[in-house]
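2024-03-11 09:14:02 INFO receiving multi-entity request
2024-03-11 09:14:02 INFO entity count = two
2024-03-11 09:14:03 INFO echoing inputs for audit
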Amino acid sequence: MKHLYQSVAVLLGADPKRPVADDYTPEAITLHAEQKADKTRIAAIHAEIAHKAQNKIPEKWRRRRWTVLILTNLLFVLSFQLDIQILEGALTGSRFVGFHMADLNSALQVMLAYKEVVLNLLIGTTTVLILWWLLGGRTFCSWVCPYHLLAEWTEIAHDYLAKKKIVKDHPFDRRVRTYFWIVFGVLAFVTGYTVFETISPTGILSRALIYGPGIALVWVATLLLFEIFYSKRAWCRYACPIGLTYGLVGAVSPLKVTYNLGNCFHEAECKKVCEVPHVLDVVIKGRATDVDLFIGADCTHCGRCVDACPTNSLNLEFKGLGQLLK
Amino acid sequence: MAKNKKLPPRKEKARRKFIRTVVMGIGVVGISLLGYLPVLGRWHKRIRPPGALKEQEFLASCIKCGQCVQVCPVNAIKLADLDEGFGIGTPYIDTRAQACDFSCDGLQCVLACPTGALTHHINYSHETDMAIARVVNENLCLAVLGKGFKGLARGDSFKGKLRYEDVDRWNPIRVNEYPYDLELCDLCVRQCPIEIRADQCAAGKPPSGDENQCPPERAIKLETIAGEDGILRKRPVILDGCVGCGVCEMICPVEPSVFVMDGTESRGMTV
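2024-03-11 09:21:47 INFO inference complete, emitting structure
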């Protein structure tokens, strides 16, 4: 339960806690002690970093993920444009071969604003809840959300400009996302309008792809420019309530990125590529309380850390539920 | 009081982060609330698809997915853009460009709606209440002028569609593929979906053999104007059976149309 509590706390914006002595398992203590003493291990790290610099690891998960993301959105587009009717609607609400699906955050906004739930919406919401619980909650973000893909591309631009010292990342307090989640929920309930949908780049982009572009894309472009020049990955990291909704769903999901302390050289290659690096604090030397751990609920299961890790310490896996409630 | 006391760098950094987080938090919520303006100011008076709830409830319950857009056989439904604020992504019908002619018969948009924003409590075209037609340019009306109409109702380049049962019972065709030759223009009455159904029912042939499809009231008629010049003149009169589908506005061959759809009073279903 302690892990789950930590995972949700970090999701809501808390800083990851340093473990206390009691948290460590004997196996973990032994491993940590060995790593400090082991000279050959340190030599191995240096050899391995040099090797990796020469042989760039192909980004397997990223390629798979982009393919899934593009195909999913393409299926939406073609279902309408070619009338193949497999996945009708948009990301906010759709039918997959006739079965209702409703985006959890959009459905929540509608329920709070309208204060009434028709059966179809309930069915759609439940279906999607089960789907993303199985698939890891925020997996939606990195594997389906079209804004995520654009933000990954602009992130490349940000990193390039940051390297040239033209731009600088300005981080925000991550708790602001929880504040947004609550404020937009309250606003929907009080005003009776789905206020968040007005600025949701996910809904805007999905509709633009399917039904054609509009001036709403100016807002999306503004967000992307903000991310390039001011704050890296700002919307997904600090703002989007959709991400938090799915994060909560994924807190006890069987799909997890798992971490193995025994293999880890603590090089932090994973943290460099991670959209939500706070979930990877466990890889910092001395932090892992057990030999095998899973990465917390804010993780989008994008797999970039899995690709980046030179020692296969991180993996994308389905785990039994008993493990997660530990 | 100590003024401009320099904070240690770590604290200064945290202070700046806190300030920009507050600014960002207020900014994003503020921008989203700008969406209230078009709604409060009623900048756009949109005709909503069949079965739409009263405007406020409609905006609340619509999940902005466009499934109604996808099922419409005449592509009458469009989605609103960001300039409509909280109404972004909600469906509307631009009746002059493409009215709802009920050629799907079964109110497909209503069936497609996942949230009940288009209420599932109605089944037939005559039960809808999108707006009411108003005769606003009677002086331009060809029937009032005693004139006939020959040719394409909206010209060659018009992209709108209608179902012509004498051409194809199941598929709507382009209006520019259907030339007319009328002694006195009666296009608004002739193409009115409610009138077509009422006529079929009066002739003992209700659509799909289903008596429930029969409108209880007539929607539009041409009324003879007493004239001294011996020319036959008629004037369009909107009746209680009008549901505001907009076909009369769309098919009207004069510019601007004799009709507009008025959604202010009758728009919206109350469940």
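2024-03-11 09:21:48 INFO post-check: Chain B has one domain: 46-262.
2024-03-11 09:21:48 INFO post-check: Strands of chain B lie at 77-79, 91-93, 132-135, 149-151, 161-162, 173-174, 180-182, 220-225, 233-238, 259-262.
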